[in-house]
Structure prediction request, 105 residues.
Amino acid sequence: MGKVTHLLKECPLCKSKFSGKGRYCKRCAILYSLLEEDTSIDAVLQAFWDHCFQCEAEIVASVELTPESLTVQCDNCGEVHVIPFEREDILRYIRSGIVREMVVD
Prediction:
């Protein structure tokens, strides 16, 4: 059991533990290839966030990327938005073309 945990790496973007090749976990590796740059929280936020759905403000108070979601808090009204952000979600967005259009804007 100790050998298995020893082989796990921490993803520098979402902090999830993963085994395998590469710098990022499988989900963040997709983000890296999609954004075509050194992936950061700011790059993910720009690609997947436009404005607060509650008050329409664009300023973000806090952002957190976890293995399950992207959580964004609005700086204006304090509303917390939890965006499902698993590997399957990203692949679905890519297949539907939504993310590609967002990244182009």
In short: Strands lie at 9-10, 17-18, 60-65, 69-74, 80-84.
